[in-house]
Design brief:
alpha/beta, Rossmann fold, binds adenosine-5'-triphosphate
Length: 242
Amino acid sequence: MKAITIKNLYFKYDKDWILENINLTLMDKEFLAIIGPNGGGKSTLLKLILGFLKPNRGEIKIYGKSPLQARHLIGYVPQYTTFSLDIPITVVDIVLQGRLKKGKFFYSKEDKHKALLMLERLNIAHLKDKKIRDLSGGQRQKVLIARALATEPKILIMDEPTSAIDIKGQKEILDLIESLDITRIVVSHDIKILFKEVDKIAYINKIAIIHEGPKLNIPTDQHFCEVELMEFLKDTDVGFNK
Ligand SMILES: Nc1ncnc2c1ncn2[C@@H]1O[C@H](COP(=O)(O)OP(=O)(O)OP(=O)(O)O)[C@@H](O)[C@H]1O
């Protein structure tokens, strides 16, 4: 079953195209890694998939629906913490927010159980009663991931989930994402993500280069930068868009 189909997508904020002729298909339960340089359009593409922005041309379908109709199917972890740190809200309360649906104002016992389960999965159950403002950046990031997973989404979308996290935490997060049995999209500058079992790689820099199929044999050399990676993908790609 197709989870996401993007066809001939073009987008601009002002007069210049930010994304040009993007074509991408993601099947149910596949794991897509989106990489590319700063300003390349990665976050913009996520916002289009989430229905926060509308394409100028082309279309996006999510399980056959428009992004707005499919919004409830997606758990989203933004690049930056979006809640105010002045509010003395606890970790478990943040995760419980993920259990609230339209027209529902109270949590059941099951909601609380699921929220605690998510905290355990992310190894942060011991922080459940802490105020969110008293956590480190990495711990806050894990709480946001737990909240997104608590919605039991069909698709999990994460923008730079490991950027504020130490090496041990990064491994935990990437291992967790790898183990999830749902459709996943992760934007990352961290090439380590490509050592995970990703099904597809999209290199986005206005246009998209999509790699799928055999796992890339990526050099572990730390100087292997994104531009070199793009060249590497061009040689092995299946869908160079331009
Ligand atoms: N709201 C906006 N209005 C106008 N231009 C914008 C807006 N948001 C982003 N841009 C521009 O669109 C381009 C793509 O930005 P985007 O945030 O999608 O890139 P990115 O690949 O996610 O970058 P990064 O890796 O730095 O997060 C950039 O040139 C950026 O300046």
